[in-house]
Write a structure and sequence with these properties.
This protein has a 7-stranded mixed sheet, with helices on both faces. It is an alpha/beta fold. Helix 12 packs across helix 13, helix 18 runs parallel beside helix 27 and helix 25 packs across helix 26. The chain contains 27 helices and 30 strands.
């Protein structure tokens, strides 16, 4: 029975997926670091024994225990658990021998989601039960639980619903076949539908049809309908699509990852034998040959007939590397003294596969030995290989996306243009696009994007750096951008950076406020700080006198709660059609509506305050770039009270730091 058949059989009978397969093989790493933590003498003895057995099985295993139990290959627990847990989070598996509560308290600061979390398991100190607590399917904790239970003579306890009910687990399927889950929410919806008894359509594009053998197709669980065409799949409410390009309509898109294959072989191996061994490794790994973007080996094999023939037959480029370059790959699952003596490097296939990915790839399948040859598979950082194919010297597809809408966003766009840095710049409106002007090397996108549209744009354009330079008060926009980046980062090496606006200046800041009043360097106390526009309105309702409002059109409707607002309030908004139309709809018109583009000088602010005879000037804490100091000075000179809506506190990088990131070659 094939490996994948075991997976399908496990879905049927509810048994453990991994009873016929080890954690390292399931996890695709070839070798995985396991950290064993124990807290009692009995627990430490068991941990020491397990570490020894796991090492014999090829794992990099290290035990930790309180100082009095340490020794004999068990290190003392460090005082700072962040060094041990946080430093290895997402890179190692953790086995806690002791109470589950201890494990929960130790890991909680680093838990994020099952796609990035470490596998975490708990075992009692008698070795009777092993429970995968975290990242059971995607991280391989369920597989590791079965393997450890086998070594300890205990029982693995699985609590995941799909395991318990013997149902199709889409995350297991995706990991098994090196498919990127492009939408976590859609994956959750599919899993929920499976548990509710819904039928799931599975369509695999013809080019990737060799992912499943004919035997495996017959072993599909009954809740999965294998469809021959995309049109057939559309008959089902829930669809899982394995395709090169994003499918239309609502479906969970599992995108095949790009792979590099490292090959080592005996001299003059028969081409048929090498091809057979290579295809066998692909089949066992559930990977289509179409996913292989490059074959790699040591330079000693540059003229090896069998590899050259394999490359030519399947149209896959062949790359070679010298031994000293292969040795720069830091970690491999195993090494051979014989191979090192002959070639100068201990493991050719894994090192070649990883180096082919720029040494930033992920080892999907460690060294697999076949007759007279070895092979290993590594996944590219998504998009990198194809990007180099389409980019070339004629101008690569920009890998940078800047969300503008502020002075900082404009300055970043201008900096990129001046330094020949290709990038996309997204602005909310056509007016914002006009303000940027025609910038060389910059592609300006006009129109608001929601979270899913942002995520799709990142994926389709293989964005590697996203800079959020939206307005400090555009919290919804920032939340959408950040969430989209987190979703895309599951299968893309994309980095999110928030460009934070500087403080308003030496003469302002909440740190100088006392009980809502502000004592600034000019010598006035006429400034009121509030946390939101509704609180500003609540304050103004208790006052008398005209009000100049400069907080934008989006929240202008809140000021209609002020008695006689049509007479008292004057709105200054952007000179765009939607802003003006919304203001007029609310009753701000004639001399009570000022449509202008900022930032404004002190003189202009002062002139408007005097023209409107405003006793109150409402603004947001926009910082230096937003002209806050000029508003403060004008209010002081006019004798008006400045009502300031303080901006939310947030972490991020300064404009100058972000400029340096823009110039980093890794993102170009």
């Amino acid at each position: 029975m094939s490996t994948l058949t075991h997976f399908f059989t496990a879905w049927y009978d509810g048994g453990s997926v991994m009873k016929n397969r080890g954690y390292a093989e399931m996890n695709g790493s070839g070798n995985k670091r396991i950290i064993v933590l124990s807290f009692t003498g009995a627990g430490t003895a068991l941990g020491r024994e397990l570490c020894g057995k796991l090492k014999k099985n090829g794992y990099d295993c290290q035990g930790y225990a309180p100082g009095k139990y340490a020794g004999e290959n068990v290190l003392p627990l460090p005082e700072d658990r962040s060094e041990l847990i946080g430093g290895q989070w997402g890179r190692s598996a953790f086995l806690f021998i002791g109470a589950a509560g201890i494990a929960v308290r130790w890991i909680v600061p680093w838990v994020k989601d099952k796609y990035t979390d470490s596998p975490v398991l708990v075992m009692d100190e008698k070795g009777q039960y092993v429970v995968p607590l975290l990242s059971g399917h995607v991280g391989g904790a369920a597989a590791l639980a079965d393997e450890i239970a086998g070594l300890a003579g205990g029982t693995a306890v699985h609590t995941t619903a799909t395991d318990v009910q013997g149902k199709f687990a889409v995350d297991v399927f995706a990991r098994k076949h090196s498919l990127a889950i492009t939408d976590r929410r859609a994956a959750k919806a599919v899993s929920a539908a499976v548990l509710d008894g819904e039928k799931i359509a599975l369509y695999i594009e013809e080019a990737y049809g060799d992912m499943l053998t004919s035997e495996e197709r017959t072993c599909l669980p009954e809740d999965v309908i294998l469809c021959g065409t995309a049109l057939d799949a559309e008959k089902c409410r829930y669809r899982v699509m394995v395709t090169e390009q994003r499918p239309s309509g609502k479906a969970l898109w599992l995108k095949p990852m790009d792979m590099a294959a490292g090959i080592g072989c005996r001299k003059d191996i028969r081409p048929e034998l090498l091809e057979k061994g290579f295809l066998d490794v692909l089949e066992e790994s559930g990977i289509s040959i179409r996913q292989i973007r490059k074959i790699a080996s040591i330079d000693l094999k540059k003229d090896e007939p069998a590899i050259l023939r394999l490359s030519e037959k399947y149209g896959i480029p062949f790359a070679v590397y010298p031994a000293d370059e292969l040795r720069t790959v830091e970690r491999v699952s195993s090494g051979s003294d014989f191979v090192e003596k002959v070639t100068g490097v201990d493991n050719v296939c894994e090192r070649a596969a990883l180096l082919c990915c720029g040494n930033e790839g992920k080892l999907i399948r460690g060294k697999c030995v076949r007759e007279k040859m070895t092979a290993a598979l590594a996944a590219y950082p998504a998009g990198s290989e194809r990007l180099s194919d389409v980019g070339g010297d004629s101008g690569a597809v920009p890998g940078i996306l800047i969300f503008a809408g502020t002075t900082e966003g404009r300055l970043l766009a201008e900096y990129a243009s001046a330094h020949g840095i290709g990038c996309f710049v997204s602005v909310a409106t056509e007016y914002g696009k006009c303000l940027l002007g025609d910038l060389e090397h910059v592609t300006v996108l006009a129109g608001r994007m929601d979270e899913k549209q942002i995520e799709a744009f990142i994926e389709e354009n293989r964005i590697r750096l996203v800079i959020d330079a939206t307005h400090p008060f555009a919290q919804a926009a920032t939340a959408n951008i950040r969430e989209a980046c987190e979703e895309a980062a599951v299968h893309l090496p994309v980095r999110y950076v928030r460009c934070v606006r500087q403080d308003g200046g030496s003469a302002c800041g909440k740190a100088h406020c006392e009980k809502g009043r502000h004592k600034d360097a000019v010598g006035t106390e006429n400034i009121i700080w509030v946390d939101s526009v509704p609180k500003a309105v609540a304050y103004l309702r208790q006052t008398a006198g005209n009000i100049l409002i400069a907080t934008g059109s989006k929240e202008l409707h809140l000021y209609t709660a002020i008695e006689d607002y049509r007479e008292r309030c004057f709105a200054r908004v952007l000179s765009t059609g939607p802003s003006v139309a919304e203001s007029v709809r609310l009753g701000f018109e004639g001399s009570h509506l000022i449509a202008m583009q900022g930032p404004f000088s002190t003189e202009m602010n002062l002139a408007l305050l005097r023209q409107t005879e405003a006793a109150y000037f409402v603004t947001k804490e926009t910082g230096r770039a937003g002209g806050f100091d000029e508003k403060l000075e004008a209010a002081s000179e006019a004798g008006a009270v400045l009502v300031v809506v303080g901006r939310p506190e947030e972490d991020g990088e300064s404009l100058e730091t972000v400029k340096k990131l823009l110039a980093n070659p890794i993102f170009l």
